[in-house]
Amino acid sequence: MTTSTSTPDPAASVTQAASITPAGTLAAVSPRTAPAVAMLRLLGGFQLSQALYVVARAGVCDRLADGPRPVAELAGATGLRPELLRRLVRTLAGEDVFAYDAGRDTVALGRLGHTLCGEGEDSLRDVALMWMDTHYRPFARLWSTVHDGVPAADREYGEPFFDWLAREPERVSGFSAAMASLMRTVRRDALDGVDLSGVRRLVDIGGADGTALASLARRYPDLRGTVFDLPHVVAEAPALLAREGVADRVDTEGGDFFAAVPAGADAYLACFILHDWSDERCGRILDAVRAASAPGARLFLVETVFGEGAAPEVAALLDLTMMAMLDGRERTRADWAALLGDNGFRLDGITQTTSPMCVIAATRR
């Protein structure tokens, strides 16, 4: 489903800084904000990230789901100091996370607040927790990365990010939960652009806990498939597939997609996988797909495409993530065409969706 959407004005987003009015409440700064003031807001982004982490970890937004509460009562429920929680709330009210009534000293969810609740289709709470637990410290080493090309995470953790992640089951669970959240939110609408008409068996490469394939299996009742990922990652998939009622049609398999992928499917899916890797390592994944499939097999990639999609700024932000954490990158339409073409696939088309993600369709030659 191709859709046309307007792109948010980046200038407007930069100038939505917050200030304290004489009455003591937060209000948006005029679009005519001085450049230095707008830059201060950008420079303070790391502080906002940590404030959001505290709010998410303490479950503040969950306790406001039923309506406004006094700050003191909310502090007691979350174990936070009332005076410090009040300051967090006032700051994040300027970012539309909360609505703070200074006269009554009460707080309610703002326009964005529900996204930090633990439940709900738009929940990004697990992303807030994962990014601050795993991504925050490496970014302090970005200076070195842009000089020598070594991912900042490699320096921070002493090994590649995914190797470090795999050493603790809790890290794996947190990462899988965050990726599932992204699937439900940022990537949810992108799956509507994956046309599996006529596909009998689909392999989801790097399918983690099976969220994507379960969604597609519900939409296509005759579809059978396999969730394929590293053994310690895919171990969480059977429980989700059972909850979603598709375990009779979707199985799981553990393995390394750089070495081999399940053979014999007529279509392969990779959601947000290739952007993690360099062109050389992407070539190894595509080689594995070619070895496992026959000419004419379909390949669907759910990825950002630089300069395209409903929110192209997401690709730019994710490109920074790839720079610091891994050796991958976000790619342009021409980049995707070249990568696929160089590795035995014909690019059939790129479908823009209502999400920041696009669906890249290709055929094995």
From TrEMBL:
Q: Which GO terms describe its molecular function?
A: O-methyltransferase activity; protein dimerization activity
UniProt xrefs under Gene3D superfamilies: Vaccinia Virus protein VP39, Winged helix-like DNA-binding domain superfamily/Winged helix DNA-binding domain
Q: Taking every annotated instance into account, which residue ranges of this chain make up the domain O-methyltransferase dimerisation? A: 41-106
Q: Ranges for the O-methyltransferase C-terminal domain?
A: 143-346
Quote the InterPro entries the UniProt record gives: COMT-like (IPR016461), COMT_C (IPR001077), COMT_dimerisation (IPR012967), SAM-dependent_MTases_sf (IPR029063), WH-like_DNA-bd_sf (IPR036388), WH_DNA-bd_sf (IPR036390)
Q: Which Pfam families match?
A: Dimerisation, Methyltransf_2
Q: Which domain of life is it from?
A: Bacteria
Is Protein biosynthesis included in the keywords of this UniProt record?
A: no
Q: Which GO terms describe its biological process?
A: methylation
Q: Which UniProt keywords apply?
A: Methyltransferase, S-adenosyl-L-methionine, Transferase
The record's section on CDD domains has: AdoMet_MTases (cd02440)
Extract the PANTHER family matched here: O-METHYLTRANSFERASE CICE (PTHR43712:SF2), PUTATIVE (AFU_ORTHOLOGUE AFUA_4G14580)-RELATED (PTHR43712)
- Name under which the protein is recorded: Hydroxyneurosporene-O-methyltransferase
Q: Which species is listed as the source?
A: Streptomyces finlayi
